[in-house]
């Protein structure tokens, strides 16, 4: 549960469900989970349990057993690289949420409107004069992660997750009850659970596939290392199915909670991502009784979610480093943590000091997102599917999976051989196409920008950009926030879009942006 429940459950799934048919989208999403991504999850966990190692040594053992080319070792190494990069910017998001716990408790959002909330976020993240404060929160969050991981698998990781994950679920239920009491739960149910067949389309299927693939921590060695820690008696497939269903339930509860406390017709006007979580939510929660406590509790929940995600992303990296070097766990965690912090600075500084420094039209953060989401994670998933589907013997595959009903074994075999490689390749291509279209919107002069943007995005709105809000380093954040509010809401342009000749002012991910990356 700690590995699967992430920020996408809070800032992505509710919006997708409300946009693509409500309950029908949830059913479509579950179908994508069960038929496409669940077999890959089972495979990764089974590989780890069979080998009793992380993904790198697990692949080494299977390659030797199947007498295959050593080139397949790239699967394990690329998955570790993907986990490292995703962890580097996941920790940046966690540091923002951690700061917001204290901001909420200290009453900084009391009586705040959207302009003031945007200014608070800009002052923390995008103000070049305050980047050292942002770095301080980043270090604080990483120390919380590293401290637990250094204690070991049983005394640290397992003990923490056994307390934190149920605690986070209880806190979510309390916040859901509060939202239902003070909000309009009927409108939330209509957005999230009611059937709206008129909103269902092929775009709904694409959104369900994207979310099902990117939200479960696949392609980063997480499931392999967790599988290696399970006992041989663990009912692996049943446990994974339970986790998938619980992850979906958490996403539904989060969606109901968010829409129940919305003040404008139970809708956030299509907002998601940064603008939903760090601007609209604090403004809305500030109107509730005891708002300081409520805001602090909501962002404490966000911190717990990102914290458990970070712990699970760190584990395969630490496991690989220990298997490679034989170093003690505490030293391994320290060295890996220092590396993650240094890599995270590339994303952190992309929001402020390096905001205007672009390569090919994008900041370092956007390139990291594109490399992981568009290339590394899909490539690892495809290679695992091809290796297990075509290179392993049926006997070795059956031994690895364990006792399995004949129907499931047949579905698994053909999904890994044919369905999953094709579907994931399509997801990776689509992800890359949208990201490259976004680079063109940022003034990129690369060759692919010679094509009309509509040909790349298939008529969709070009993704909004790299930075979470409009304030540029040369402007005070308050002035930029006021400028955004000068036009009526119905007349405002999509965030990240400015008049011709103006500077590019990217904001949070919006309607057609893609920002999953398992965070």
Automatic annotation (TrEMBL):
<protein>
    <submittedName>
        <fullName>Sodium-dependent transporter family protein</fullName>
    </submittedName>
</protein>
<feature type="transmembrane region" description="Helical">
    <location>
        <begin position="20"/>
        <end position="42"/>
    </location>
</feature>
<feature type="transmembrane region" description="Helical">
    <location>
        <begin position="240"/>
        <end position="261"/>
    </location>
</feature>
<keyword id="KW-1133">Transmembrane helix</keyword>
<feature type="compositionally biased region" description="Basic and acidic residues">
    <location>
        <begin position="500"/>
        <end position="513"/>
    </location>
</feature>
<keyword id="KW-0812">Transmembrane</keyword>
<feature type="transmembrane region" description="Helical">
    <location>
        <begin position="334"/>
        <end position="355"/>
    </location>
</feature>
<dbReference type="InterPro" id="IPR047218">
    <property type="entry name" value="YocR/YhdH-like"/>
</dbReference>
<feature type="transmembrane region" description="Helical">
    <location>
        <begin position="293"/>
        <end position="314"/>
    </location>
</feature>
<dbReference type="InterPro" id="IPR037272">
    <property type="entry name" value="SNS_sf"/>
</dbReference>
<feature type="transmembrane region" description="Helical">
    <location>
        <begin position="131"/>
        <end position="148"/>
    </location>
</feature>
<dbReference type="InterPro" id="IPR000175">
    <property type="entry name" value="Na/ntran_symport"/>
</dbReference>
<feature type="transmembrane region" description="Helical">
    <location>
        <begin position="160"/>
        <end position="181"/>
    </location>
</feature>
<dbReference type="GO" id="GO:0016020">
    <property type="term" value="C:membrane"/>
</dbReference>
<feature type="transmembrane region" description="Helical">
    <location>
        <begin position="367"/>
        <end position="387"/>
    </location>
</feature>
<feature type="transmembrane region" description="Helical">
    <location>
        <begin position="208"/>
        <end position="228"/>
    </location>
</feature>
<feature type="transmembrane region" description="Helical">
    <location>
        <begin position="407"/>
        <end position="429"/>
    </location>
</feature>
<feature type="region of interest" description="Disordered">
    <location>
        <begin position="460"/>
        <end position="519"/>
    </location>
</feature>
<dbReference type="Pfam" id="PF00209">
    <property type="entry name" value="SNF"/>
</dbReference>
<feature type="transmembrane region" description="Helical">
    <location>
        <begin position="78"/>
        <end position="103"/>
    </location>
</feature>
<keyword id="KW-0813">Transport</keyword>
<feature type="compositionally biased region" description="Basic and acidic residues">
    <location>
        <begin position="476"/>
        <end position="485"/>
    </location>
</feature>
<keyword id="KW-0472">Membrane</keyword>
């Amino acid at each position: 549960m700690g590995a699967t429940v992430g920020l996408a459950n809070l800032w992505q799934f509710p919006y997708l469900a409300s946009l693509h048919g409500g309950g029908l989208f949830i059913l479509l999403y579950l179908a994508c989970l069960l038929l496409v991504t669940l077999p890959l999850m089972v495979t990764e966990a089974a590989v780890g349990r069979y080998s009793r190692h992380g993904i790198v040594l697990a692949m080494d053992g299977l390659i030797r057993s199947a007498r295959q080319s050593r080139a397949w070792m790239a699967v394990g190494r690329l998955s570790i690289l993907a986990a490292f990069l995703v962890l580097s910017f996941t920790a940046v998001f966690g540091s923002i949420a951690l700061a917001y716990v204290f901001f909420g408790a200290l009453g900084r959002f009391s009586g705040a409107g959207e302009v003031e909330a945007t200014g608070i976020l800009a002052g923390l993240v995008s103000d070049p004069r305050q980047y050292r404060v942002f770095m301080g929160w980043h270090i604080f969050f990483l120390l919380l992660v590293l401290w637990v991981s250094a204690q070991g698998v049983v005394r640290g990781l397992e003990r923490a997750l056994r307390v934190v994950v149920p605690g986070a679920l209880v806190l979510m239920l309390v916040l859901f009850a509060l939202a239902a009491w003070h909000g309009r739960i009927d409108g939330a149910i209509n957005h999230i659970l009611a059937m709206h067949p008129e909103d269902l389309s092929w775009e709904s299927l694409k959104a369900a596939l994207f979310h099902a693939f990117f939200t479960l921590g696949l392609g980063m060695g997480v499931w392999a290392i967790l599988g290696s820690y399970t006992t041989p008696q663990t009912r692996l497939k049943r446990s994974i199915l339970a986790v998938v269903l619980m992850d979906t339930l958490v996403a539904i509860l989060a969606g109901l909670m968010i829409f129940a406390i919305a003040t404008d017709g139970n809708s956030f006007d299509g907002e998601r991502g940064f603008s939903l979580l760090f601007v609209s939510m604090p403004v809305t929660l500030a109107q509730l009784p005891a708002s300081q406590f409520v805001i602090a509790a909501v962002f404490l929940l966000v911190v717990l979610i990102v914290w458990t995600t970070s712990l699970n992303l760190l584990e395969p990296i630490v496991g690989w480093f220990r298997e490679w070097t034989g170093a003690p766990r505490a030293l391994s965690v320290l060295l890996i943590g220092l590396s993650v912090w240094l890599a995270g600075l590339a994303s952190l500084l992309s929001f402020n000091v390096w905001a205007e420094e672009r390569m090919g039209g994008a900041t370092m953060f956007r390139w990291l997102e594109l490399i992981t989401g568009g290339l590394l994670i899909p490539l690892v998933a495809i290679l695992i599917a091809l290796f297990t589907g075509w290179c392993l013997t049926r006997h070795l595959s059956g031994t690895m999976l364990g006792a399995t009903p004949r129907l499931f074994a047949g579905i698994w075999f053909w999904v890994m051989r044919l369905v999953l490689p094709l579907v994931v390749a399509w997801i990776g291509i689509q992800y890359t196409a949208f990201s490259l279209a976004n680079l063109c919107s940022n003034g990129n002069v690369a060759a692919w920008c010679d094509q009309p943007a509509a040909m790349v995005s298939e008529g969709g709105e070009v993704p909004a950009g790299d930075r979470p809000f409009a304030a540029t380093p040369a402007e005070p954040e308050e002035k930029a926030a006021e400028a955004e509010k000068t036009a009526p809401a119905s007349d405002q342009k999509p965030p990240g879009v400015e008049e011709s000749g103006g500077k590019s002012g990217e904001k949070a991910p919006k309607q057609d942006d893609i920002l999953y990356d398992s965070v």
